[in-house]
Structure formats: structure tokens, C-alpha cells
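FAQ: What does the model actually see?

It sees only this:
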Amino acid sequence: MTFKYNLKTKLILSKKSWFISMKYGPMSLRTKIVLSFLLVIMVGGIISLSVGARLIKDTIISQAQIKVMHDLHSARMVFDEKLNDIKDIVTLTAAREGIQEDIKNNKQDVLTKKFTRIREKHKLDILTLTDPRGIVIVRTRNQDLVGDDQSQDEIIKRALKKSIVAKPQILPHEELLKEDKVLAEQAFIKFVTTPMAEDRVEDKETSGMMLKAASPIIDEGNNLLGVLYGGILLNRNYEIVDRIKEIVYKGEQYKGREIGTATIFQNDLRISTNVKNEKNERAIGTRVSKEVNHAVLKEGKPWIDRAFVVNEWYITAYEPIRNIDDKIIGILYVGLLESPYIQKARHVLLAFALLSVLWVILLLIILYLSTTKIINPLREMVTATQRIAKGDLFQKVKVPSKDEIGILADSFNQMTRNLKVANEKLIEWGKSLEIKVKKRTNELVKMQEQLIQSEKLASLGKLSASIAHEINNPLGAILVYGHLLLEETDKNDAHYKNINKIIKETSRCKDIIRSLLEFARPGELEKHSADVNEIVEKSLTVMKQQLNFQNLRLNKNFSPTLPKIKADSIKMQQVFINIIRNAAEAMDGKGLLTIRTFLTERGKYICIKFSDTGTGIKEEDKNRIFEPFFSTKDVGKGTGLGLAISYSIVEQHRGKIEVESKVGKGSSFAVKIPISMDE
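And it is asked to produce this:
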């Protein structure tokens, strides 16, 4: 096969050489060698560039898709946070003192004034009160319209059964008019022609999407006095989408355009967005593409891929918004402008191409120098053959060496007798060249493996440097006090205190290294049936032995009906001890620590909530407390890995940690573990 390939290559090159020689004159041997190698390099380079371009683009886009998936999770948290805020406002208002008496005494004017002040203070669009039958008795906006029946509203219906409810809901045009004509006008959106959108018969939307919460008002005798409900209309309300853009994308731009965007859809219609159209206006009234419409609205699946959004390509993530009946009523969207990532891929590819060109130039230079040793002896043979052709039969080609060129010279002198031998040696030379190429290829592969290994060692070196930096000061203290101990002879001497310092510094070093390695290589969970209350009690037993826990007041409120879960109790105990220790340190050993356990989120999660009366967490630090090595403690008092490890352990259990804090008032850490590990 090698001989046939060489023969075919020679025929192709000979045809090209003949064509070039006919046009530009005879080609030198050096030129032919250089062109042959250049042809091979160019073909290989084109293939490498094509494959490399594909890999580079896929890698960069894949990274962007992973990022946008996390961004969607953050957007959902902002969306749910706003819904919970409305729920808290309605619930706290329903529980306020005096409300029950005003309802019993039928003081509608007083209730109207109170609820109007609350609605305006908290910027709610509606805040309405019904009687125990669901008949409206107080409406804060359209105050003259009362007496209509809201008992068939699914959210109100569940609140009439003494449940607190908060969910997105589609309000028809007629219901919006009851609350206020302004809200009906705000909800009205004319459809804007959108490329790739699915055809619809309608050309406008008159209903609106509202974040709505309802709470029953119950007196001391557990009698239902009525239902208070309130909400915010999302149509043309940009608070949530702009908040998402602010938190997730921090105003980053590319060529004057916002890189990150967020949108709330009512069905497939944009009702709240910071996506801009050609006029640099919010693209209200445009609609989602047909492909996304089918996947999210009809099949109810999240959708993460590139999509054409209004007038630009974005790397997007969509997930459905569901109402209280679990029916899909809209879509939550985040997207990253695709252009920066495409540009980045082009820059990387350009750098790769320039590097390849430089490499080809270097190879050609090396090839030129190496062919010189071959060309010079051949020129001498050409001169000798020209003289022989002129009749100088006394010329004899000198054999300069015993290599391939020497064989060629000897074959010239004994052409007829040694033609077969010379041909066999030429074939053998070709085979040896192929073996050398394979050998060189293997060497290059080994060099590449060594390079990868070097990079791994470099990364390991950086990690070692970080560990060395962390334990440098404690080790210095150990050495100093170690020397002092060498000079001590009496344990009752004043230098005895140095032992405690050595122990303290050594323990700190061990804690830092252990925490670092635990975060870097988390072990597998050893799951078994566990009682959350028992784990918390064991954690408290451990912490009660510590000095900064002695003066704390403890308030325990454990639910006795919690189901057991599959969990690693040792790791969960580590999480609880870490949170309790942080709370004790935040209160400086004095204060009230409240621990509650209860079911939440429709019984899917067990929540363990730790609330302290400590110093609280600054707003700018709240989003960083779970980052590795981030600590608000004084130098030497914390590694910054405790909460990061705790977060990792909870994530291994498919749970989550939620933090609420106010500076000067305290903090609450809520650990939520799914009852089923499939959640």
C-alpha cells in the first residue's frame, strides 16, 4: 500500500511539475520538495482549522449555555422572592391588630383608609377584602364597586378554606375593570409582528398576569371573618425583569447593547421585558418563537438553546410559569447576547490560525536548511553528468557518502548492473521514512501528554502555595513556642501558657487543611434513614460543651410529626454545627438562638431554621457568604470554608440554604432537605 501511495503521489506531483515547468520553466529539486511538504502541511492545516473551529465554537457556546441555565435559576429566585414579598404583606396585614374588630363592627370606611395606606406604602396594584362568602366588602382602588362575588376565584376559594395562598394568576379584562380602569389599560397590549412566532388569531391581549396572594382573616375563636387579597400586575411592570438584569448581569454591555436580558411572558406574549427592539424601546407586544412556544407552553419543559429574540440571536433559557392549578400561563426567560461569544470564538480561532501560520513558516525554514545538505551533492552530480553528455567519458561521479545520495551516485556509475538493487533500497528508504514519521508522531504525543501533566502539576503547585500561605503563620508560632518549650523544665512555670498557644495554632492549621481538602474532594454520601430532630439535638449536645455557647438562650420548636429522610446524618450534623457556631459567634456568646423544624413547600421539604439575634450580615456580603475563602471574621478566626462546605453538603442532598439577615437585628439560615432524594 505504501508503494502504491508513493507512486500515485509521484504521478500527481509530476503532472503538476510538468504544468508549472511548461509555464514558468523547469522546477528545481528544492522547490519540488518544499511544494510537496507545503501541500501536505496545507491539507493538514485546513483540516485542523476546520475541526478546531468547530470545537472552539461548541466549547464556548456550551459554557454560555451552562451560565444561562444558572442565570435562569437566579431569575426564578427573584420572581419567587417578589411573590413571597406580596404574600408576607397580605399575611401580616390580615393579622394586624384592630382589623378583626373593624370587620366585626362593619367599619368599611376605616378599613378602606387603612388598606389604601398599606397598598400605597407597599406599591401593590390591588388590595381587596371579602366577607366569609367571598363577597367584596372593601376595594382600595375602585372603592365604590363592592358586593361582587370572588368566591369562584381559585386563589380566593382556597383562602376561604383558611389557607394562605400566593401564585401567579391571569385576570380577565372584566376583573381588572372591577379593580381599576387604569389596570385594565395597563394590561392591554397590542400584538407586534414577530419573526418566527406562531400564528395566532388574536391581535391583542386584554387580560393581565398578576402575582397574587390571599390570606384568611380569623378571629380568636378560629372563625373566618373574611379574606384579604392583594397583588401586583406584571403587564408593563419592569421591576422584576430589571432586578434580574441588575443582579445577574450587573449592567454589562457589548457594543452599546445589554448583554443579558430577562422577560416575563403571558402565554407567548412579552408583557414585561428589557429586550429592546430596533427603536431601542422595550419589546412589549412581541412574542416568543414557535419552537420555544411548543417546547415550554405545550410540553411544559425548560428550553435552553440559542433562539432568535425580537431582532437578535441570544443564548437563552426558558421555563414555564404555572398558576395555582399547575396550568402553564406564561414563561420566565433569561438570555445572553450571542454576538460576544461568537466574537470570542473568532478571536480564539484567529489566534489559532496565526499560530499555525507561524508554525508552517518555521517548518519551511527548517525544511530549507535541511534540504541544503541534499541539494549540494546533487549539484555536483549534475555537473558531472553534463560533462559526460558532452563526450568527456573520463568523468566519473565521486560517491560523496554511503547514504541515499551515495547510493544514487554509485547507481549512476553502474546503472544497468545495479538498477534492481537501487530500486529495492529506495523502497526500503521510503519504509524507514514512514517508521521515522510514526516514531516522531509518538514522540509528539508523549510531549503533549507531558505538557498536560505539567499543567496539572502547576495547578497542584498553586493549591499547595495557597495551603502553605494559610498555615505559614501558625507554623511560625509553633516553631517559636517549640523553641521556648525546649528551654522549659518546670510545667508550673509561667511558660506553661505557651503550650496552649502551640495547641491553638496547630489546631487552626489542621482545621484549615482539613476544611480545604474536604471542600476540594467531597466524599460520597452515606445515606440512611435519619430523624432530623435527632441530628439537631446531637449538634446542640456537641456545641453546649463550647465556651461561647454557655450564656446563650435557646428556643427549640421541633415538629414531632416530621417524616424520616434518607441522608448522611454525620455530614448534616456538620452543617448544623457550623451554622450554630456561626450564630454563637455573631451573638458574641450572648443572645437568643431559635431553632425550628417544620414541613414546607407542600410537604416536599423539611426545613431546619436557625435564627439568631446577632450582628447580622451586610447586604453586600449576603451574596458572597457561600464563596470559598470569603469570611467576615477577623484574620485568624475563620478560614472562609465553613459555609462553602455546608452549602456543598446540602447540595449533595439536593437541598438548599436560604439566608435572611438585617444588620444589627440578626440572621436566619433555613436549610431545606427534600423528603425524597428524587426532588
